[in-house]
Every structure is written in C-alpha cells, then in structure tokens.
Design a protein that fits this description.
The complex is a heterodimer of chains A (528) and B (327). Chain A has 528 residues and is of the alpha/beta class. The chains are: A alpha/beta (528), B mainly alpha (327).
Amino acid sequence: MTTDAGAANAPPSSRSARFEIQGVSKRYGGVRALEDADLTIQAGHIHAVLGENGAGKSTLIKIMAGVVAPDEGRMLLDGAPVVFASPSDAQAAGIACIFQELSLIPDLSVADNISISDPPRRFGLIDRRRQRDIAEDALARAGADNIHPSALVKDLSLSRRQVVEIAKALARKPRILILDEATSALTAADVTKIYRVLKRLRAEGLALVYISHRMHEIAELADECTVFRNGRSVASYTAGTKSDAEIVELMIGHELSAEFPARPVRAANAAPPRLEAAHLGWGDRLRDISFSVQPGEVVGLGGLDGQGQRELLLALFGVLRGAMGQISIDGKPAAIDSPGDAKSRAIGMALIPEDRKSEGLMLPMSVRDNLSFAALPSLSRFGVIDRAAEHEAVERIVRLLAIRTDGTYVPAGSLSGGNQQKLVIGKWLMVSPRILLLDDPTRGIDVGTKQEIYQLLRELAHNGAAILFYTTDIDELVGCCDRVLVMVEGTIRRELIGAQITEHALMSSALNLGTEVADAGAKVGLRS
Amino acid sequence: MMGDARYWLREHRGTLAAFVAFVAMFALYAANHSAGLNANVAQTAANKGVVLAIVAMAQTLVVLTSGIDLSVGMVMVLANCLASHIAAGEAGVATVGVLGVLAVGAACGAINGMIVIFGRLQPIVTTIATGAVYYGVALALRPVPGGDVNAALADAATGQIAGMVPSSLLLLAALVVLVWWPFRRSVVGRAVYAIGSSEIAAYMSGMPIRRAKFVAYTLSGLLASVAGLFITFVTYSGEASVATGGTYTLYSIAAVVLGGVSLFGGSGSAVGAIFGALMFRTIGDLLFVFNVEPLWQPLFQGGVLMAAVCLGSLRLVRIRNRLELYG
C-alpha cells in the first residue's frame, strides 16, 4: 500500500489504529519543520519512520511525546482526539519515548532514574526497596539484568545508558513506545538483546515507533514504514514491498533548494597536499582515517549526522586529547596540540564551529570585538591593540562578507542568524587561513545568506585555501564540493569524486548499502 | 546482592571523606588539648561548630539545585535580631516567638525561591540583593546590639544532656533526621538532585521543577533561621553584624565544598556539609592547641579548602575532548 502526500488523508484501514497523527504542522520561526504530516500506528506492530537529516522525524516525535505543541493538525489516541500540554500528559496517555539525546539524570542511580517520574511511595516518602524491585524487573524486561540498580548512571557506558533508557520507558508500562535512534549507541551484543525485547513487546500488543538510519534493522524489525522528506510524510507502505533503491529515492526527493557556484575544472596538481592526515584515530569514535586536501580544493564530509565528522574536525584542530595518527601540512609533519597551535602562522588553520552561539561568538560583545579576536596578535604591537589597523581590517571584512549590521559597535547577538554566521566566518578570514574547516556552517540560516557563503567558499578556494566542509545538507555536498568523503561509524566509507557525487550515491553510502544500490538508483524512476 | 557496598561507597564517598577527615582532625585536637576530651571541651566545640553546620545544611539545599544562596548569613542575622525581641520572656511567649522566627526564616527563603523561579533571575544576584534587604530589616530591628532570650530555652539548647552529650549536637542530629532524611527520600528531594544534575533531563522526565526549587530555597531559609536562633541562645542577645552574616555565608560555601557537595549541583549530601563545617571549625581549634598565632588561621583554612578542591577536580585530568572542560 503506497500513498503519496496527496492521498495520505485517506480513511484508516479496517484495523483499529492505536494512535493517529493527522495533518500536523510545526514551524520554528520561519523554518518549516513539519508540514501536514500523517502517521497511523497499529497495536502489535513495529512502525519504522525513515528520512534523511532534517526531514522532520525528531519534531514528529517531540510532538507525540508532548515536548512541543503542533501549530496545526490533530492527534487521535484509540480514535479519540488528544492534546498534550507537557511530557507528563503524554506519559499519562501511555506514550513512552526514548530520545536520541538521553533523558537520564547522570548523578542519580539506575533505580532512581527508572522510577523518576512516579516513584513508589510509602508514607509520602520514596520506598527504596520497592523502587529497587521495579528497577530489577524493568532491567530484566529490557534484557539487562546485569546492570546493577544502584550504579550511578554517569559511571555507565553509553551503550548501557541507552539500555537503561529502554528499561525506564518499559517501567511505565507504556501502550506506545517510541524509539528515536535508540540503537545508535549500542554495542552489537546489546543490539541483539534489544531486538529480542522489541519483538516480545510487539507480541504483547504494544505499538512501537522505530526511527533508525540502519536499513538492515528496519528490514529485520519493521512491519510498516513511513518516509518523511522536508517535513512531509511522503509515503507509507508495508515493510518488504519496496527495494532499498526505491526507499532511498523516496528519502532524497528532488528539490534542489539552492543554486551553487560553478565548480571550476581543476588541473592535476603536483604540489604536496596542503593538509594530509594519515591513520587518524580517537578512541572508538575515529578509526584509521587517511585523506588529503589540495590547495584550492573543497572537500566535503558526508554521511549521517554523528558518524565522527565533528570529531574529525576537532581532532585536526587540536581539541581532542590523545588523538592518534599523523597530520602533515604542505608535506611536512605538523604537531597540533591546541587551537592555538592550529591557527599559528606555520599552519594557518581555522575552524568554523557548528554551535556559533557557544563556540563561535561572544554574543554580548560587539561585532568589532568578535571579528578581531582571532587576529589580535597581528593587529597589536607590544601587546597593545592598534585601533586604526583594527578598524580598517574590520571594515574590510564587513564589506567583503556584506554583513548587515548597524555599525560595528552593536552586540553580535543583535544580528540575524545568517549574519552571525558570517561573523564567525569573517573572524577567521581576518587571519587569512590556509586551511578552513567548516562544521555545518549553514545550519539554520536563510537561503540568501547560504548562497553568499557558497560563493565565498569558492573564492577562498580559488585564492588557494584548502577547505574541509562538513554539512548535514546533502544538496550542499552535491553542489559545493570537488570531492566528498562519506563517513560511517568513525571511518571513511567511500570517496566520491566530481560527477560521482550524486544524492543517490551519497545516501546509499551513508546508509552503508553498498555500490550496487547506489548505481541501481539511477535507473529507478519513482518521481511523480 | 554482591557489589551493593561498592555502589553505596561510590555514592557517599564525599560524605565519608569529610567524616574521616573531621574525625582525624578532631582526634588530634582532643589528644593535644590540655584537658583531654571531656564533656566541657565537647560542649564548647559543638556550640562553635553547630551554627556553621546548620548554615552549611541550608547552603547545601540550594547548591544541590546548582544554585547558590548568598543570603543565608543575612537570614541568620535577621533571625538572631528577631529572636532577641520575641523569643524572650516567659516560656509560653518565648516558644511562640521561636516559631515566629522560624516562620520568618522560611518566608525569607520562599521569597528567594519565588524570585529565582518566576523572575528567572540568577540565584547569585537574587540572593545578594535579598540578603541586603534582610540585613536592612535586621538593622532596623536591632540598631545596637542588645535584647534578651528565654534563659531556660537557651540553656537547654546549648548545655549538656545527662552531663555528657552536648545538646547542640542532638539538635543537629534532630535536624538531619527530621528535615534532611525525609527531604532526601521525598519526590521533591529527588527532583532537587535531578535539577542540579541535568535540568533538561529533569524537565523531559516530567519532574516538578518549580516545586522542588521552591522547597529547596524555603528549607534553606528555615535552616538559616535555626542557626540564627542558636546564636541567640549562645550570646543571649541580638546583633545586626554585617561581618557575621558575610563570614557565615562564605564559610558555608567552604563547608559545602569540603563536605563533598558539588558546586555544579546534583551530588552530595547535607550530612557531608555538616562534617565539612565541623572540619573547617576544627582547623581553628587545632591551631589554638598548637599555639599557632591566630593570624595564620585564615591561611590554613584557605590551604585546606584549596586541597579539597584540587582533589575534587582530579577527574578533569581524564577528559579527552577539551571542549568538555568548558561545557
């Protein structure tokens, strides 16, 4: 059964739905997160929700869990309309949610956490013995009786914490269980156990919503699937009725949202690479990563969110302690042990962070101060800032980037998101970086500013900078990059060059489907 | 179950460390005291230590929410001045007066809580401001030192029971059993820990965040007023001393840190803070029995505090992503 966006309002099938979402929309400021989304969940089924980064899955779940309220649309529980004003309303209705960002309290014990929202009480005080029994029971149901109920959550590994999350959800005896990337942090041993747990819960008549990027998990578990794209529910179908290539096609759609500057034809380059990394590693988050970037080249980092791209940029920039491997600049080995080293004249590296509010800018300080921070050594003599030189340099950057600001003395926080992002970029342009690392620089900014940033990246590359560009927007990888390194679980899974960079190839490699599906995709014509 | 003891130790190690350190220091003190450890030595030491211990309990409640209460010393001074007016006279009147003092203390804490919760102001600023106001009220009540207190009550609180145990220690124990333990085992108490540990996770778990903060600040004010009452019982008078208020506020923070309570909130215990306070007080006594110039006392107290803080931050050595150092 396939329905596309137009026909999704069809009446539900004869089976009674446990939970329905009808025509739900949600906007954050001007950004559309969900648009007329529909979802029907049956008891005794596992319903998989698929979609690329930013397709609206997280917003959908937050609405179901009562964390955010929808702007439009309605929700039906067993056929009756419901409204959730807070997470506790949703819990009371029998919805338990396991979030991607963990909801555990690190300083409390496992048992405390499992009973957190409604601890057993005796004479008004928490009954520790019964709480412990509840915890042991819930842990056993989650297939984790080897976790001690008295252990503090902060002492557990990420995988174990995720299992505690699941136990916490089960302790509430939910009727609908939502798992948002619940297996992303699990070790293989825990995953197998969780599969068994989920199948048993399905047999017990629970309705499960399962969000995952791992196609083999969906094939193993799901009964029904719904694909989201750009905030819309674009298709629902019974699991197993579509090929991987068709699913990928549904997920990426074809709406190029921005125009990109032309990619110059690059001559073969005999010079040593500007930046070369050999066998980089950091714990189990980065494993044996080797690549190089030539001057004038824009190399993209692709893959699903959280596959180690951010850590790779941080490792290059000297933020991670105990990173292994060798970094060479212009063919010469370089030791980068701190951001201070990275920005030194010999290396000339700059990192545009993802979180501009906390890592990129001092919001209460002026535009001028923010722009000159990184460049202060070159703008001062004997430790005193040369005001005239600072003024000139700041004005030049403001003009170059067309930063829309009411003078350079206003606080950075008063600028729009897009202009704040230009400030972060401008701050590093002040030091004329030779290597530019970008961590999702266009997230949450308007299309116009995005275009300007693309143009700027090209110009910088044209003037000889080497650019390493991580973005969660697949279009940007296709439009902006000369080469793309697709990362999966801390390694570079595939390298795509020039014309090989297509949405299909990127998505298939990111989903770890292998090259056959990627190439098959070109032949499938699902678009309407 | 195997390993229970291990997890118990893990959870209470800050409290235990403060306890062990205090016992060691106090044993050293008693062993070198000319009179040895007798009932009178214990009584004097207890009366000196208990006031700070109670203020440290008050501070703990707010620090657990990852806030800080800079008005505890001033609430204490206000309670002292008020008690020197209304906790005097015959037994019946004085008892009502004591209840009145406690009510005013709780009200001061409740005002702090309301401002922090509904005004969304930072605790540090809120309590500096309200502390100044509370001190102003204290000064209006008692422009010059003086007043009186019911002698029978005072002697009962500061004397000895059965000629052996300092009654102030029993009072402290009663506060732990009647206020701290129930708090710790209540749902709001757990919410207080949860807020300090991760307020977002607490919200996502549907915990009563506002109620928990309100209770923490109100109990803090209540405990501070108990400390103020106790000062009145010791001195038989009230004095609006800005130095006393300020000193107790700062020492309460030191005691909380020495007691293993995290200033980031979410972990630690008022029992630990009590031992931290007693330890802090014992430093002064130790210097006294070893005939060290009193001038050195602040230096030694500072040194012990630094050492405790250093031990607490050892974990930072293990952090591998340097961004977490600033998170």
